[in-house]
Description:
The complex is a heterodimer of chains A (392) and B (296). Chain A is of the alpha+beta class. Chain A has two domains: 8-108 and 273-347, Periplasmic binding protein-like II (D-Maltodextrin-Binding Protein, domain 2, 3-Layer(aba) Sandwich); 111-271 and 354-391, Periplasmic binding protein-like II (D-Maltodextrin-Binding Protein, domain 2), CATH 3.40.190.10. Chain A has 17 helices and eleven strands. A four-stranded mixed β-sheet of chain A has the order 6-7-5-8. A three-stranded antiparallel β-sheet of chain A has the order 1-10-4. In chain A, strands 2-3 form a two-stranded antiparallel ribbon. The mean pLDDT of chain A is 93. The radius of gyration of chain B is 24 Å and the shape is globular. Chain B starts with a helix and ends in an 8-residue tail after the last helix. Chain B has one domain (67-295): MetI-like fold, CATH 1.10.3720. At the A-B interface, helix 2, helix 10 and helix 16 of A face helix 12 of B.
Amino acid sequence: MEQAGPTVEEMNAIVEEFNQANPNVKVMIDYVAYDALHDKITTALASTPPAYDVFLVDDIWFAEFADKGYLLDITDRVPAGTKEGIFTAAWEVSEVAGTVYGMPWLLDQKYFFYNEDILTQAGFSTPPKTWEELIEQSKVIKEKGIVEYPIVWSWGQYEAAICDWVTLLFGNGGTLVDDQGNPSFNNEIGVKTLDWMLQTIDDGITNPASVSYVEEDVRNVFSQGQAAFALNWNYMYDLANNQADQSQITGKVKVALMPAFAEGGMDSATIDGSMGIGIAATSPNADAAWGYVEYLTSKDVQDRYSAHMLPVWETSFEGESGEKLASTSPVTEVMVPMFQEQFPYSHVRPKVPFYPEASKALQLALQKALTKQASSADALNEAAATWTELMK
Amino acid sequence: MTLRRREAIVGLLFVLPALLIILGIVLQPIISTFYLSFFDASLSKTKANVFIGLENYLDLLSDDAFWATIWRTVYFTVVSVGLELLIGISIAQLISSRPPGWKFLRIALILPWAIPTIVNGTMWRWIYNADYGAMNALLLQLGLIEKYRPWLISPKMAMNLVILADVWHSMPFIALILQAAMATLPPELEEAAAVDGASAWQRFARVRLPLLRGAILVALVIRTVEAFRVFDIIYVITAGGPAFGTVTISYLTYLETFTFGHIGRGAALSFLISAFTLAMALIYIRFLYRPEDRAL
């Protein structure tokens, strides 16, 4: 998976370490693009025995996979020390109604990236704290002709669009669902937020191609110096700021707290994109699989492979351990404090078994509004109706 | 037992393994998919499938989104196969007139066809990219656009661009079939027409084209059925976006079956696709097939 987590090389190294240390277990790993992973898992798990013993589970799939009986209940396998050492917020991702269905694997959220060089040229010494301020800065950047479109997003018809939408919606004081789980995004705040997105396209502030983009497109455009601002996961920092073969703006990339709408009265809001690792409920090798999962999520492995993924262990961030983590690499130096600053503002998407279908309906609504096939209100109402229908 | 009957039994034994394999990998899935299409079935391990009769079919047939998808698929099929036929015939005609370099042209023609669809889709996704795509660079250098513009952000435009990518990929198939068919035509007929004073266009339209009808029929049936079931090129270039503007019937089936996990509904969709393709093949045969084409 490219847009979050360790690189393939890092992952191969981790697996190799495990295979060396455990000669009686042989782990073979397959890589699948994120947008194909869900469908790959649901088909692989439908067979008996399952095609995979261990698999990566995104935050939004836990409820569905638990409901479908794909995931092994590991509540009793997790040692007390592990339970306490890992962030509570990380357990919230892999727990469904009090049962633990997976080990937390990576903690991620969307970060706000900016190109310091462009801001300096435009005469700004600090990044925007609010979306209103971002518009002001963008107008100056555009007027001075530094870049054509100051900000690029991942608003394509994928889960990526939901992530950006949730970030903006929560930053405006909105929510996806209310306390009873009923859709609440189709209210005044939701409409206002979606209209704001549309307005930034019309004003030439948002790169219009955003409507067809995913995270990797955002990274490419930003890394070519064609955007002043971009939202992306943790992984972009290293690739855009440190890897000269991937980026033309190395050394100019800065990360700041995600803006919110001044109007909404929030300090910041972003989307939680954490993931866990699950074991197939019908796996004939459950014990060996658990050993492997424990190894992958151990503090030792997580601390050492932290260049593109921050550890799920709260203890990794505390005291001496925290200082050591921050000084592991030029990446952790920036991203560890940034993570701690941003994480309290991170929102998880609803944990519902019908999430893929509800999400697709919402993606369609966003796309209809952003391509002007429907008004924001009509599009969101339609998605909310589908969501309500799915709850039955 | 007569010798003939013994031979027949031995012959049957010889083909039996192949027959079993064909039954196993072709017929069995078709039957079980058909069976599944009458159930409210999911990929869940905890819920049993519930028999619901024709409900999957009736739901789909009364759903506006389903018909919108069908019309979108018909648009894709008609435009892309139409363009492929038009360009395919022109190129076949060009090659058979043996211009300088025609052998090279014939080989070069195979290249797009030889590229796997997924690779072709990825290539076009890059070509169409708004910020670093080759299409923007080309159009800008030709002076056709003043600045880079995004291509895949309107549903109509996205559909037409997916069609362009498909035409580029599949047109050579039609061109090669027709070129091969043209090579077998007896030159005497056109020579005789020329002697009778027929113009070049008349020789092509009145003599050559009718003789090619059988080959055109074969190419059309194959390409129409393929185009109607288009999936991979859309999955890669647009994933059905923007705003479902490029969701075709196969893509909808994929979403229902694998993303949403409604495999009963997905099975019903698969059978509706089969019904539509069969209907189209019958229409072609009814209007294009003539008894004298039986050789094909």
